[in-house]
Automatic annotation (TrEMBL):
Organism annotation: Dyadobacter chenwenxiniae
Ranges annotated as spanning the membrane: 35-57, 64-81, 156-177, 206-228, 234-254, 285-304
Alphabetical keyword list: Membrane, Transmembrane, Transmembrane helix
Keyword Membrane: yes
Entry protein name: Uncharacterized protein
Domain of life: Bacteria
Transmembrane helix is among the record's keywords: yes
Length: 327
């Protein structure tokens, strides 16, 4: 464990990556072990984009998929797989969350989302948007009432309830580990995880909200506006509330971009909502959002914005990685 304010103090419940390393026979806390896991994460970017394309093709036209994938490829969500020289391994969590969106097999959903939660606890917040995605897909993206959200007869035998089971099982297991082994995530004053940070962060780092998803915010805002215009107020409030929770969590810690990016399922959901409602200019919206993402340099915000360069231009960050691998 690390000190109270360190990253090491907050990883007691982030068990997926260490267990993965053990499962593939990579053991020890040496630099080569960490770099090997980093290489695996970097390689996961290709299947991540492949699964993303397959998921979008299930709901969108082919001509709409390309700009969305290009946009996502140029924001932090995709770059986190490779630009992770501090070895946070969020790429694993993002990949497992995407698989949880894509899979329709209930066991596969349970497994991948469980792995995501044990990679980083911020995945638990993302479960709410994934639950909403599966619930909507089971109802042809048309839920107008509270009954549609909570009618037991409609979802008890469907895949959406598996997402709730993941949340319950994770929280129960976490409580058990806390009680049995004294594991905990530090919170409160001096821990770097505290609600009192929010006013200061919003005052000095408000741009972090936009920088996390850049042009994709256009999709989110248009989807909300479209739902309100169609009288689907409950769904609009649900989506907006989930995003608000992501913002609160992100601004109660210092690594704003990392935390905000766990809300990416909402951006995918927004893109689908726009086209499901037969919005006549949806393709132009996708292209415009993608263009903004491609034109803006990716900024990672922790304390201050840090522009993410091409990997070949990142020697200062790569040098300790190379040293750990070969020396």
């Amino acid at each position: 464990m690390g000190g109270r304010e360190t990253h090491g103090a907050k990883i007691d419940f982030r068990l997926t990556v260490p267990l993965l390393a053990k499962a593939i026979g990579v053991s020890g806390a040496n630099a080569k072990t960490v770099v090997f896991i980093y290489i695996i994460q970097s390689a996961l970017l290709i299947p991540f984009l492949f699964v993303l394309i397959k998921l979008l093709l299930q709901h969108l036209s082919r001509s709409s998929v390309l700009p969305i994938v290009l946009g996502i490829s140029t924001i932090y969500l995709a770059k986190a797989f490779i630009w992770d020289y501090d070895f946070w391994f969020d790429g694993f969590a993002y990949f497992f969350l995407l698989l949880g969106l894509y899979f329709q097999n209930r066991m596969a959903i349970f497994l991948t989302l469980t792995l995501a939660c044990w990679t980083d606890e911020r995945s638990v917040i993302a479960l709410s948007s994934i639950f909403l995605f599966h619930l909507l897909s089971e109802n042809n993206f048309n839920i107008r009432s509270v009954k549609g959200f909570w009618s037991t007869a409609r979802w008890v035998g469907h895949r959406s309830n598996i997402v709730l089971l993941v949340a319950i099982s994770y929280l129960a297991s976490r409580f058990f580990l806390s009680d049995r082994f004294g594991l905990h995530t530090p919170t409160g004053e001096g821990s770097g995880v505290e609600l009192s940070l929010i006013p200061y962060q919003l005052k000095h780092r408000l741009a972090g909200i936009f920088l996390s998803f850049e042009g994709l915010w256009i999709l989110f805002l248009i989807a909300i506006a479209q739902l309100l215009r169609r009288g689907e107020t409950l769904l609009a409030l649900a989506i907006a509330s989930i995003m608000l929770i992501h913002i609160v969590i992100a601004y109660s810690v210092f690594d704003i971009t990392r935390s905000m990016t766990y809300g990416f399922p909402l951006m995918i959901l927004a893109a689908i909502i726009i086209q499901k409602h037969e919005f006549t200019v949806s393709k132009d919206i996708y292209r415009g959002a993608s263009l903004i993402c491609m034109l803006l340099p990716t900024q990672y915000l922790i304390f201050f914005p840090r522009q993410i360069p091409w990997t070949v231009c990142s020697y200062n960050q790569l040098e300790p990685v190379i040293r750990g691998l070969f020396f």
